[in-house]
């Protein structure tokens, strides 16, 4: 591994190059007064303070902090890796520089790490980002000056520009967003799958979303009637026949009741209410539109899931009859499947696909093969449509791994762009075999951040690699390169504020978890388009991605346990994601900080055995009360193999090509 050279000598004749840089960068600013000089206009009683402290004018300090925050927001080129120990190059009036920035905003290149391809010594020093942190001379000066001003100021209150190192970010106001998403489609076409995917995505973005499933309401009422001694309600295929007038009236009443519950919830607190029902006729959809039009401020978006691929339909039917549906309690698998196909035929006899030109709709063919949108209105509807355009049903796995243990991990520091520790390199060497044992001969793409510890971890993997700036670790701003103990000692109020609201707390010049979620949204969009992906990133980044896949709330997100030297395998399924964890026997420090004891304690995530476990969160909730179906606990690959056998036997006819145009 290449070792960065030491810092260059600065010919600034004893003066701090950082102070010279500020003076030359902004002529309108008064020069910082060295501690040994006394300005003529200073009051006499300030002399003692100046002899005891290095003091700065508050206006100058606020201006310097503002400059610093602006400079931090400028992205640096990825072709250089400035050494953390490199000093700022000398600057003068003809070539002003501030914190390593050139006159045109370009990064001043100091000593760099020598890059080597992973074929020479295997320890590739990848391109990274410039190192800004509280250990730099200027930031230490600013922090010390802030402390002095707070202690010596005679003002009745602190200057707002220098009070604390961070802020608590407020949640965006989504109160005006009120949308009804009405599902359309035959049974076993993936409506519930799309409803739940959309709900998890929008909740991850902090919209208040609920799914109102008419089938859940029907089963719940039937269960209540049975418990009240009114007898069992027949929900066989004949119940869903449109020639069964009595049953049809009951189903219409259930649909209306579900819609009214959705509207009441939207008017009180919600942003997006999803009506999960067939809504299979123009007449039924027109009734929904007329009801929504009576409510000012509510928008209506239809979402149709149209599927004519027999393999996909067969998979959905198999999932339905094997997942513990109470409609088929006590029936054999073959009898349940036969009855369910009859139910589909009853709906298919009257089904009318969406063709109404005057309504807003999004029509998805075979869950991602083709998407048609019409009259999409507003920002949130556009966001929903774009998300749905990126979904697919292909079987795949998402692998999540933190980088190997880094030197900063060992030292207890946050942020930075440090190398891997020796144990981190051991993990990088062991990771390829673990991945190959899981993925086999299937294709895989590896995503890393621009920081060298993730790229070093991926350097031995024989797969295509892509680098994402969006996957860089949460920016700790002025606390970059510090330990939590140092932060607690230097900024006790901010340390406490972050513990109280870790998701919303933003470091000065840095980010909050909320900011990270926003910048990861494009990554989520691209993830939904991909097949098998391995993401090697950082603790905060993987917490945000993990919370998306496992539908965890924002309050829990900053405390998710993502240990070092552990591979997490996530398999998307119909009603959630199945998870497996593979901890490698390579020691590493524990960087997980649980929720403070004064708050609500969160149990650290347990490590699952590397075997299939029928997780509760991947089972369907048939009653809407959190009681999931027990199901048969079959692996997805078992169902896939059974369908493959049926195709080979001629029982199923797969689509000729996924990209073929669909003629309706």
Short description:
The chain is α/β, with parallel strands linked by helices. It has 19 helices and 14 strands.
Would you mind describing this structure in some detail?
This is fructose-2,6-bisphosphate 2-phosphatase. Its EC number is 3.1.3.46. Keywords: ATP-binding, Hydrolase, Nucleotide-binding. In the C-terminal section; belongs to the phosphoglycerate mutase family. GO terms for molecular function: 6-phosphofructo-2-kinase activity; ATP binding; fructose-2,6-bisphosphate 2-phosphatase activity. With about 675 residues, the protein is of the alpha/beta class. It folds into three domains: about 15-165, no CATH class; about 180-390, P-loop containing nucleotide triphosphate hydrolases (Rossmann fold, 3-Layer(aba) Sandwich); about 400-620, Rossmann fold, CATH 3.40.50. The protein contains 19 helices and 14 strands. It has a six-stranded mixed β-sheet, sandwiched between helices. Strand 13 (about 565-575) and strand 14 (about 575-585) form a beta hairpin. The longest helix has 24 residues, at about 245-270. It starts with 16 loop residues before the first helix and ends in a 16-residue tail after the last helix.
Number of domain units: 3
Distance between the termini: 61 Å
DSSP E strands, number: 14
Largest sheet: 6 strands, mixed
In terms of per-residue confidence, which ranges show pLDDT below 50 for 5 or more consecutive residues? Answer: 1-56, 75-136, 145-163, 599-617, 628-637, 655-664
Morphology: globular
Q: Could you estimate the helical fraction of the residues in percent?
A: 25-40%
CATH architecture of the largest domain: 3-Layer(aba) Sandwich
Neighbour order of strands in the largest sheet: 3-4-2-5-6-7
The CATH top-level class label of the largest domain: Alpha Beta
Structural class: alpha/beta
Q: Counting H and I runs of at least 4 residues, what is the number of helices?
A: 19
Going by CATH, the homologous superfamily of the largest domain would be Phosphoglycerate mutase-like
Q: Name the average pLDDT.
A: 75
CATH topology of the largest domain: Rossmann fold
- Cα-atom Rg, whole angstroms? 30 Å
Q: What portion of residues belong to β-strands?
A: 5-15%
């Amino acid at each position: 591994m290449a070792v960065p050279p030491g810092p260059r000598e600065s010919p600034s004749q004893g003066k701090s190059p950082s102070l010279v840089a500020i003076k030359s960068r902004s002529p309108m600013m008064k020069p910082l007064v060295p501690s040994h000089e006394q300005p003529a206009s200073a009051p006499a009683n300030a002399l003692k303070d100046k002899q005891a402290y290095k003091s700065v004018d508050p206006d100058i300090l606020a201006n310097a902090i503002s400059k610093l925050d602006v400079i931090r927001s400028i992205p640096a080129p990825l072709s250089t890796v400035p050494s953390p120990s490199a000093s700022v190059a000398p600057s003068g009036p003809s070539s002003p520089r501030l914190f390593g920035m050139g006159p045109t905003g370009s990064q001043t290149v100091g000593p760099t790490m020598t890059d080597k391809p992973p074929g020479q010594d295997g320890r590739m020093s990848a391109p990274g980002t410039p190192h800004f942190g509280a250990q730099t001379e200027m930031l230490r000066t600013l922090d010390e000056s802030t402390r002095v001003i707070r202690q010596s100021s005679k003002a009745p209150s602190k200057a707002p520009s220098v009070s604390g190192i961070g802020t608590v970010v407020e949640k965006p106001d989504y109160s005006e967003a009120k949308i009804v998403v009405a599902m359309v489609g035959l049974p076993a076409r993936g409506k519930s799958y799309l409803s739940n995917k959309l709900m998890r995505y929008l909740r991850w973005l902090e919209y208040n979303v609920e799914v109102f499933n008419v089938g859940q309401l029907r089963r719940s009422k039937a269960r209540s009637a049975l418990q009240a001694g009114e007898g069992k309600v027949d929900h066989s295929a004949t119940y869903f026949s449109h020639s069964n007038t009595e049953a049809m009236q009951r189903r219409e009443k259930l649909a209306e009741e579900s819609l009214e519950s959705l509207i009441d919830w939207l008017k009180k607190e919600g942003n997006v209410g999803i009506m999960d029902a067939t809504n299979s006729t123009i007449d039924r959809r027109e009734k929904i539109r007329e009801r929504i039009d009576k409510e000012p401020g509510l928008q209506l978006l239809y979402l149709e899931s149209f599927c004519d691929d027999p393999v996909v339909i067969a998979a959905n039917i198999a999932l339905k009859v094997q997942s513990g549906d109470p409609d088929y309690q006590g029936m054999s698998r073959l009898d349940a499947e036969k009855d369910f196909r009859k139910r589909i035929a009853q709906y298919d006899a009257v089904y009318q696909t969406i063709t109404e030109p005057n309504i807003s709709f999004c029509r998805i063919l075979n869950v991602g093969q083709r998407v048609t949108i019409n009259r999409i209105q507003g920002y949130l509807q556009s966001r929903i449509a774009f998300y749905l355009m990126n979904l697919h049903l292909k079987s795949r796995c998402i692998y999540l791994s933190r980088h190997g243990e880094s030197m900063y991990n060992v030292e207890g520091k946050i942020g930075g762009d440090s190398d891997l520790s020796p144990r981190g390199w051991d993990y990088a060497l062991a990771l390829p075999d673990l991945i190959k044992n899981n993925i086999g001969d299937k294709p895989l793409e590896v995503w890393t951040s621009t920081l060298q510890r993730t790229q070093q971890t991926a350097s031995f993997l024989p797969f295509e690699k892509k680098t994402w700036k969006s996957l860089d670790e949460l920016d700790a701003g002025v606390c970059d390169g510090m330990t939590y103990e140092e932060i607690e000692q230097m900024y006790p109020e901010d340390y406490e504020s972050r513990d109280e609201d870790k998701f919303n707390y933003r470091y000065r010049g840095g980010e909050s978890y909320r900011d990270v979620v926003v910048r990861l949204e494009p990554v989520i969009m691209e993830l939904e388009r991909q097949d098998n992906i391995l993401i090697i990133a950082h603790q905060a980044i993987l917490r945000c991605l993990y919370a998306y896949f496992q539908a965890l709330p924002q309050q829990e997100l900053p405390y998710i346990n993502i240990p070092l030297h552990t591979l997490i395998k996530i398999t998307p399924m119909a009603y959630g994601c199945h998870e497996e964890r593979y901890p490698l026997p390579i020691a590493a420090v524990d960087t997980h900080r649980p929720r403070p004891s004064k708050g609500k304690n969160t149990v650290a995530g347990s490590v699952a055995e590397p075997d299939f476990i029928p997780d509760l969160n991947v089972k369907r909730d048939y009653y809407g009360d959190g009681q999931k179906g027990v199901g048969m606990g079959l692996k997805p690959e078992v169902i896939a193999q059974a369908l493959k056998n049926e195709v080979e036997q001629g029982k199923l006819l797969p689509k000729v090509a996924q990209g073929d145009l669909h003629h309706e």
